[in-house]
Amino acid sequence: MIQGAPLGARFERCTFDNFEVSNENREAYEACRRLAEKGGAGVLIMGKNGLGKTHLLVALMKEYDRRTSLPSMNRREDGSGSVRVPPVTELLRVAATETDEDVGVGEPTLSPDEIERSTHIEYWPLLDLASELRSEITRGYQEVSRRCRECDLLVLDDFGAERVTDFVLAELERIVDWRYRTMRPSAIATNLDIARITMKYGQRALSRWAASCELVTVLGEDRRASMEPS
Ligand SMILES: Nc1ncnc2c1ncn2[C@@H]1O[C@H](COP(=O)(O)OP(=O)(O)OP(=O)(O)O)[C@@H](O)[C@H]1O
Ligand SMILES: [Mg+2]
Predict the structure, then answer these.
(1) Which option is the CATH number for 24-48+57-71+111-200: 3.40.50.300, 3.30.70.330, 3.40.50.1860, 3.40.1790.10?
(2) CB–CB of 181/151 below 8 Å?
């Protein structure tokens, strides 16, 4: 289940299959695929505008979600009953050993209704997250902050685009620190390079990301410049 900000029509169709891999983005593509397929370390993608960072984050979320979805075999017809949900790491391990041949022709397939989503993914462009965190605090609760700390996969897009205030900085630090301690993966995309990330968020945050994420850079030309407007 993907929660947070809507992906929007422009990115709904983004998958690993329609991402063109080149030498300039291969490292980021492979890091995202590894995280989607095997779990483990997160990924921090750095690069200029229009190089496919958001495309990769969306593909990663979809694949991670797909691989960790669960058939609701133990559920009773009235929807009651408990379903044993294996840990996400276990689901990813099983999925990693599956091949296309494992799915035989003619075998019954599961309809969307029969799928029980066991994974919780949060997707937030930083501008939206910062504004949501601010508005939550004025309303006196911190639901989004808690979801960002505790979800299975946290995906933060356009990191660095937000106006940094002490409040936003402190909240982000809390989220980063919590996820670092509990070894939950995050996938982050930013236009900033290492030096600017350190300047904006401090050595403390960078040190935690470096220890829990693959740091990858995408290069190349802005793809938007050569696209037909739509
Ligand atoms: N390697 C690629 N293969 C296929 N489509 C791509 C690729 N790279 C970028 N695109 C497409 O180009 C457009 C811009 O890419 P995207 O929005 O992911 O860039 P970005 O790196 O996130 O840019 P920004 O930093 O401005 O947010 C999207 O429509 C995306 O699907
Ligand atoms: Mg983007």
Answers:
(1) 3.40.50.300
(2) no
